[in-house]
Design a protein that fits this description.
Strand content: under 5%
Shape: elongated
Number of helices: 5
Distance between the termini: 12 Å
Structural class: mainly alpha
Length: 168
């Protein structure tokens, strides 16, 4: 059951990462356009910096959960030599569970902030682009990352071999 959910969840996160890649490709084209217009025609793109800032938040929000589920983040393993295997598994569970809780809290607070921002009509300075959709993207990303860490914590408790033996 957990395995099937993880596979589907990973597929969804991969599609989200691809969407972030498309935003990145669009950002590359925007930068090329902006440089061309600025240096060859003396007509810089008004608000190009704002668009870049907002696009970067989407790129990070789209890629962060997928990187986490693929274990692509840098980890430092300095404590593993200090503990025996069961104690290290327990520590691993606590770290992933705490991380999931902190990211769930970040998600919740980010949603509150985005709702407040939407209600106040918070927009960017130059282009007047509403900020709340980008804030919601960050909140959703934090929530998805929390789910990834929760799955990692569950994987510590229920290793794949145990799940396969229990289902046969």
């Amino acid at each position: 059951m957990l395995d099937a959910f993880e596979r589907g969840f990973e597929r969804g996160l991969r599609l989200l990462a691809y969407a972030g890649g498309l935003v990145l490709a669009g950002l590359v084209l925007l930068v090329i356009y902006e440089i061309t217009m600025r240096y060859f025609f003396g007509r810089p793109l008004r608000g190009g910096y704002e668009i870049t800032e907002l696009a970067m938040s989407v790129i990070v929000a789209c890629g962060l959960p997928y990187t986490a589920i693929k274990r692509g983040h840098v980890t430092v393993d300095i404590l593993s030599g200090l503990f025996d295997r069961p104690a290290f598994r327990g520590l691993n569970f606590v770290i992933h569970a705490l991380g999931a809780g902190l990211l769930a809290l970040l998600c919740w607070k980010s949603v509150e902030y985005a709702v407040r921002s939407h209600a106040q009509g918070d927009v960017s300075n130059m282009m007047q682009i509403p900020k709340s959709p980008f804030q919601f993207a960050v909140a959703i990303s934090a929530g998805l990352f929390a789910v990834v860490l929760l799955l990692e914590a569950l994987r510590v408790i229920y290793p794949k071999q145990t799940i396969k033996k229990a289902s046969t």
